[in-house]
Q: What sequence folds into this?
């Protein structure tokens, strides 16, 4: 069974994510809100929101969990050539609003619509304003052609979405993120659900119980990462 967050008095309480065991894909709870306090508590607890327009807010803790360890990112020969050519320029936290909008509107071959609805954009934009959500931008000349965004808590980074308008642009963003996180000692990038695209980049599945233990440690660590490059 899953739980109704509307029945709880607190704006941040969640049931134990292990209770998602019996639900398909790890559905744990329904309802609540996308306030900053609740969202941060969700990620610290190994839970994330994912729902479509017209649905109530759905909260998930899948088993297994897909993680990318920054030091283990796989760079293929073709991607390495792309990086060596230097066609792209990378920035961090320079165009968060543009990145999340592109993630919401860029067509994907494996899904007809988007789960990044206006309510989600507003919530994660507020997280960005408060210094919790971050973006990686990939530029070709003066055009934004790829990127990703996610949430950093302690030494854990929770990836949310990426987009690509030119060949390998989203992969370039992920490589740049992995290198930055490795430099600052981050433990992992949480990729949430298993996809072939991320598996080819070196992501691996971890059982929920193991992930929750890793997440409890990483999310509590202090990390003085420098996100935006100095102008």
A:
């Amino acid at each position: 069974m899953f739980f109704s967050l509307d029945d709880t008095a607190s704006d941040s309480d969640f049931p134990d994510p292990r209770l998602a065991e019996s639900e398909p894909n790890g559905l744990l709870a329904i309802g609540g809100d996308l306030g900053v306090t609740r969202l941060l508590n969700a990620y610290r607890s190994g839970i994330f929101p994912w729902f479509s327009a017209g649905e109530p807010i759905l909260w998930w803790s899948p088993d297994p969990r897909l993680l990318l360890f920054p030091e283990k990112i796989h760079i293929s020969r073709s991607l390495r050539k792309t990086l060596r050519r230097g066609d792209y320029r990378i920035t961090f936290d320079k165009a968060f609003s543009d990145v999340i909008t592109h993630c919401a509107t860029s067509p994907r071959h494996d899904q007809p619509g988007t789960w990044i609805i206006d309510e989600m954009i507003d919530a994660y934009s507020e997280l960005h304003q408060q210094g919790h959500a971050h973006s990686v931008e990939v530029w070709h000349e003066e055009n934004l052609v790829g990127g990703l965004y996610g949430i950093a808590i302690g030494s854990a980074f929770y990836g949310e979405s990426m987009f690509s308008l030119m060949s390998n642009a989203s992969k370039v963003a992920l490589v740049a993120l992995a290198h930055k996180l490795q430099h600052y000692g981050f433990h992992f990038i949480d990729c949430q659900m298993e996809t072939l695209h991320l598996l080819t980049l070196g992501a691996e599945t971890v059982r929920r119980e193991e992930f929750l233990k890793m997440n409890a440690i990483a999310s509590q660590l202090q990390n003085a990462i420098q996100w935006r490059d100095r102008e």
